[in-house]
Write a structure and sequence with these properties.
The structure holds three protein chains of three kinds.
Chain A lengths: L4 H29 L2 H27 L6 H16 L2 H7 L5 H5 L4 H23 L4 H19 L3 H4 L5 E2 L7 H20 L1 H11 L1 H6 L4 H27 L1 E2 L6 H14 L4 H23 L1 E3 L2 E3 L5 H16 L18
Antiparallel strand pairs in A: 1-2, 3-4
Chain B lengths: L3 E10 L2 E11 L4 E5 L6 H9 L6 E6 L2 E2 L5 H5 L3 E4 L11 H7 L9 H12 L1 H5 L10 H13 L5 E5 L7 H18 L2 E5 L3 H7 L2 E6 L2 E7 H6 L2 H7 L9
Chain C lengths: L2 H30 L6 H10 L19 H22 L9 H23 L4 E2 L9 E4 L2 E4 H23 L1 H11 L1 H6 L4 H27 L1 E2 L3 H16 L4 H21 L8 H15 L15
Antiparallel strand pairs in C: 1-4, 2-3
Helix pairs in contact in C: 1-5, 1-6, 1-8, 1-9, 1-10, 2-3, 2-4, 2-8, 2-9, 3-8, 5-6, 6-8, 9-10, 10-11
The chains are: A mainly alpha, B alpha/beta, C mainly alpha.
Chain lengths: 342, 244, 304
């Protein structure tokens, strides 16, 4: 017997639930088994889940590869710093902030939400222009956007501290706070993907001509998905700052762009499950490689990988996946329970 | 041994089948028209023969040499050339450069200059505009150029996909006249995709009728034009057999 | 004052570097629709090939010690070899992949090259001295211009002319142009795909090496990050020029060189640090106005 419509819907909703359970198990395991540094790694991983799943909302649904999301991350990160840092600190290090921001001393949660909203707003404005382009031209324009954000944030001395780091952020983003945001992001991504807008967008990704002939306004849905997507990458930026306690524009440039795209590609751009899988697989791999770079003791001798070995290996893996399994580890499939039917 | 043999060939684009179990052979020096409604698989058959699309099943042989697994450039070296639908001339190259692109595979380099002059004799307008950008030529001139370009590879077997597409009737006559003369002079084997059976009948030759990716008729083009097999092939549901 | 000729030489020499780098990217895109993000790292690789591998702050010249007559051809070959190798190991296996997948893998390849350099040479920028005598100023039309600027401008012209001759007059050049316009049709006429693609990568790599020599001489620094910066600008030049159009890439390279020199010269002082932001905004604007590129004809089919 085939599944009924209702059963199909339930089955679709099992995807985010299962993914969140996996994230929960991961966080629990790491917290119980590991030391402080592993707990930090768990928090970093959950931030990456928030970022990559946020990125997936746009890339996975629209099929347009974005190099610009690290820019939205930077916007979120600095916004949260502006809102939550102690006014004395801001007066000292960021003297040119507008009075409203200079005196702000917000609670971290509304600050994170507003940071996401600011990123979403910038996405609305930048996307309104960039998304008029299609295909490779659109991707290139996102690259230019990233470069713009990076240039502005690493030069605006009195507002962002330019290339010197902003310090003193409250380090509240531990593995549980970040797990909470990662879960919210996964739910929102699943919700968006099954919404009318998400469905229309994926239809247009398969066949632009047919979709526009059937009256789908591709531009509008792309813009909607970019705004939703930027909100969560902005939040990921805020969490990032409050996990390390330090902000620097170079944290939000080519390095993070590369690693997050790698996660998306390795996991599989086609599915939400792919986005989460990619983050978990590569994060575990990165952590082990980082430990090996620090050196592993074999009796008397310490063997260490040279600096950069981690990135080299990740890059090689990414290329191999692109060649051997272009649809990623998950092959574009979702993890889901079959409810009813057979 | 046939010049070209196509045996049980199938082609699919993703899950969509374009050709299913097509078998036909053509002898050296023959002229074969391939006809059939849109979507019958005419272009797919030509593309499969010249290696532009992969076959999912079956064998294609030229002079007994198996083509399966060969790249288009390797197939071109076996003396097979394609004049594609829409002509696909290189618009940013000059007329003469277009003619030279395919000469890289020839052993008889010394004959190249001679052959270019011969093309210019056959197609006077190409000679006049030899240094013009090919993109500036008219449709009919581009068709001439595409044929000339194919000839420059010194082929034994020439595939021509819908030479009449988008051309005025008097130009089409001219194109066919040239093709027939070339065939006589060079002993070419010709395969031509042609929608119009009347046209094929006038030029004369054998005709194979495709429908839904299969061969549904094979015989003299004139007989097709007289019978209503064609109508059935275009509109009917039954398999039509031509009495040849 | 001689500000105008000075600006002119600055713009021409900067534009020349951009134009050469953009040509390298446009060549590959034209032939196989690959947006090659690794191109900047070919440049960095060639710069580091000049010095002895070590993580010390002070660079010891290795290849860089060789006389120019030996150094130039060797470095050009190194550039070509790196590019050809990357095609052989990565892109050859992606012939049926989408342009987006190829673009991402070139991004990954760039990262691999960059981090390999990092592992061997360390992350600190190193002072190098390649042909330092070329930085001595000479006086031309009242402007004091480093000899190198003149050489850069002449080199660019020479490279562009050589490339044009190569493409126009040789068999492989003809095949490359045909393949760039319609790859399938070229193959149907017997043009060997692998030969053309390998040829394009070799040329592209050699162009990267030429840029590397100029940048090494001009800046006197070997920096892991230098590839990324030049790549971004060159890339933008390629897009503005109309992806795949070689004359467009050259023209856009000079245009961007001029635009950044002019912005640098005329922006108010407090806005100067943001020069690149203005530049990239101009890029987005130009993409929006003409997605097919500033220098592509309107009738040209969109390649992007």
């Amino acid at each position: 017997m085939a599944q009924t419509h209702k059963q199909k819907r339930l089955s679709a909703w099992s995807t985010p639930v299962l993914l969140i359970l996996i994230l929960l198990v991961f966080t629990l395991l790491v917290t119980m088994l590991g030391d402080k540094s592993l707990a930090r790694m768990a928090a970093q991983t959950m931030i990456r889940v928030t970022f990559v799943v946020g990125l997936w909302v746009f890339v996975g649904n629209s099929g347009v590869v974005s190099f610009g999301h690290a820019g939205y991350m930077a916007i979120g990160a600095y916004c949260s710093a502006w809102l939550t840092l102690k006014p004395q600190m801001k007066g000292l290090f960021l003297p040119d902030l507008w009075p409203f921001l200079a005196n702000a001393e917000w609670h971290v949660l509304p600050a994170a939400v507003v940071s996401g909203l600011l990123a979403a707003f910038v996405a609305l404005v930048s996307g309104a222009a960039i998304l008029r382009l299609t295909g490779i031209a659109a991707s290139i324009a996102t690259f230019a956007f990233l470069a713009i954000v990076y240039t502005v944030y690493s030069s605006w001395e009195g507002v962002t501290g330019a290339t010197s780091s902003v310090v003193g952020l409250a380090r509240y983003a531990d593995q549980w706070v970040t797990f909470g945001w990662a879960s919210v992001t996964v739910l929102a991504a699943a919700w968006y993907a099954s919404s009318a807008s998400g469905l229309a967008l994926r239809a247009s990704r398969e066949d632009e001509v047919a979709a526009s002939a059937s009256g789908i306004n591709m531009y509008r849905h792309r813009l909607i998905s970019l705004v939703v997507s930027a909100f969560f990458t902005g939040v990921a930026g805020a969490l990032f700052g409050h996990s390390l306690g330090v902000l620097n524009p170079s944290s939000f440039y080519l390095g993070v762009t590369f690693i997050t795209l790698a996660m998306l590609v390795v996991g599989g751009i086609g599915s939400l499950t792919g986005a989460v899988t990619g983050v978990l697989v590569l994060s575990i791999m990165i952590e082990s490689l980082v430990r090996m770079e620090r050196g592993v003791e074999f009796g008397e001798t310490t063997l260490a990988l040279p600096t950069g070995a981690q990135e080299i290996l990740i890059g090689v893996i990414m290329i191999l996946v692109l060649i051997l399994r272009p649809a990623g580890l998950t092959g574009g499939r979702e993890l889901r329970l079959r409810i009813g039917g057979r | 041994m046939s010049k070209l043999g196509v045996y049980d060939v199938a082609v699919r684009y993703g899950k969509v089948p374009a050709l299913t179990d097509v078998t036909l052979t053509i002898e050296e020096g023959e002229r074969l028209f391939i006809s059939g409604p849109n979507g019958a698989g005419k272009s797919s058959l030509l593309k499969a023969i010249c290696g532009a699309v992969a076959t999912s099943h079956g064998r294609i042989e030229v002079d007994g040499d198996l083509l399966t697994g060969r790249t288009p450039e390797a197939i071109a070296r076996l003396g097979l050339t394609m004049v594609p639908e829409g002509r696909d001339i290189f618009g940013t190259l000059t007329v003469e450069e277009n003619l030279r692109v395919g000469t890289g595979i020839r052993r008889d380099k010394s004959a190249v200059e001679n052959d270019i002059e011969e093309v210019y004799e056959n197609f006077a307008i190409l000679g006049e505009r030899r240094h013009a950008n090919a993109g500036a030529l008219s449709g009919g001139q581009q068709q001439m150029l595409a044929i000339g370009r194919g000839l420059m590879t010194n082929p034994k077997l020439m595939l021509v996909d819908e030479p009449s597409l988008g051309l005025a009737p008097n130009i089409v006559d001219q194109v066919y006249e040239t093709l027939v003369n070339l065939q006589k002079d060079r002993g070419l084997t010709l395969i031509i995709v042609e929608q119009s059976s009347a046209r094929a009948a006038r030029v004369g030759g054998r005709m194979v009728l495709l429908r839904g990716g299969s061969v549904v008729g094979d015989g003299d083009a004139k007989k097709f034009a007289e019978s209503d097999v064609l109508n059935e092939a275009y509109f009917g549901t039954d398999k039509a057999e031509a009495s040849s | 004052m001689n500000a105008i000729p000075q600006l002119f030489f600055d713009a021409m020499s900067l534009g020349g570097i951009y134009a050469m780098a953009a040509l390298g990217i446009a060549l590959i895109f034209g032939v196989m629709n690959l947006v090659n993000f690794a191109h900047g790292e070919y440049i960095a690789f060639c710069v580091f090939a000049l010095i002895v591998p070590s993580t010390d702050a002070v660079a010891v010249m290795f290849l860089g010690k060789a006389p120019a007559i030996v150094l130039i051809p060797i470095l050009l070959s190194i550039g070509a070899a790196v590019a050809v190798a990357s095609e052989f190991f990565v892109f050859r296996h992606m012939r049926n992949a989408t342009p987006v997948a190829m673009m991402i893998s070139s991004f990954a390849l760039g990262f691999v090259i960059q981090n390999s350099l990092l592992a061997v040479y360390g992350s600190r920028p190193k002072a190098i001295s390649l042909w330092p005598e070329l930085n001595t100023p000479v006086s031309i039309v009242g402007a004091s211009v480093p000899l190198l600027q003149i050489i850069v401008i002449l080199t660019t012209l020479a490279v562009v002319v050589t490339l044009a001759l190569l493409l126009k007059k040789t068999k492989i050049g003809l095949e490359m142009r045909a393949a760039a316009e319609n790859f399938t049709m070229a193959r149907l006429l017997g043009v060997k795909a692998n030969v053309v693609i390998t040829g394009a990568f070799a040329l592209s790599g050699a162009l990267a090496a030429a840029v590397a020599m100029i940048m090494a001489t001009q800046t006197g620094v070997a920096d892991i990050r230098m590839g990324g910066q030049i790549m971004l600008v060159a890339f933008i030049a390629t897009v503005i020029g109309g992806l795949g159009s070689l004359p467009g890439a050259v023209a856009a390279g000079f245009l961007i060189g001029a635009a950044s020199v002019i912005l640098q010269g005329f922006l108010p002082l407090e806005a100067r640090p943001f020069r690149d932001a203005f530049l990239y905004t101009l890029v987005i604007v130009s993409l929006l106005l003409r997605p097919q590129g500033l220098f592509a004809s309107n009738s040209a089919k969109p390649r992007v």
